[in-house]
Amino acid sequence: MSLAIVTGGSRGIGAAIAEKLAQDGFDVLINCASSVEKAEAVAEKCRAHGVNAYVKKWDVADYDACSTALKEIKEEIGVPFVLVNNAGITRDGLMVRMKEDQFDDVIRTNLKGAFNMLSLCGAMMMRAKQGRIINITSVSAFTGNYGQINYTAAKAGMVGMTKTAAKELGARGITVNAVAPGWIATEMSDKVPEDIRENAKKQIALGRFGKPEEIAGVVAFLASDAASYISGQTIIADGGLY
Ligand code: NDP
Description:
By secondary structure, the chain is an alpha/beta fold. 49% of the residues lie in helices and 15% in strands. The protein is built from nine helices and seven strands. α4 (100-128) links the parallel β4 and β5 (131-136). It is globular. Bound molecules: NADPH dihydro-nicotinamide-adenine-dinucleotide phosphate. It comes from Agathobaculum butyriciproducens. Its EC number is 1.1.1.100. The active site is at residue 151. Pathway: Lipid metabolism; fatty acid biosynthesis.
């Protein structure tokens, strides 16, 4: 069976993506930076769909750690057919008060982390002459967002990287796309103060936050045969916010 790597798959959107891809018949490798027990629980749910599921801990922001992890995955399991760059963090703060490390941490994990995986996994997929890469960006890349200059810069960067990678890898039969969620109910959005969350709901056409499964479905589509001629695109799944 084809292997799918999901970065940041221990909870939230990444966990839902891993489960959906397992349901669709992919073996899954779930990455996380620290929450191994939670990732193991996600892997167990994936195995219930009759596929193999693996957990591997590494920091996507660390190029050498990504390189070592991917070499081990290739040797022990095989070359992935799907890579989902989902791992992400927030370190919110208004621009004029944002500390340098808040900016750097988010760029390192969200943007450079995606580059590390794209570049290293892209090279493996090129040799295999097949693959699907799906980057999880954010609708805030298009709208901007108070207190998120670091995050919106990283997510807008992912949209550009998606287009460039699609051009560079397309000749080898690899598609590269992005999904831009709006507000999705996870631990990440739970950290936002309730008054801001309630106000945000008023701007969403559907009047509610999305569920992680509603992003997983879009990712599964992009990983499927039905999306074989789509590349370089960013699909916004935000309940009509943007
Ligand atoms: P969560 O905070 O719930 O989960 C984040 C995941 O990323 C965890 O599995 C975490 O694992 C992992 N992670 C964080 N840093 C690293 C790292 N350096 N290396 C490897 N794994 C890491 O986030 P969500 O599920 O809400 O978000 C998932 C993605 O969707 C993110 O890219 C986010 O920016 C994006 N998104 C989310 C939205 C939302 O409203 N929730 C809206 C738009 C986009 P661990 O705990 O082990 O570190």
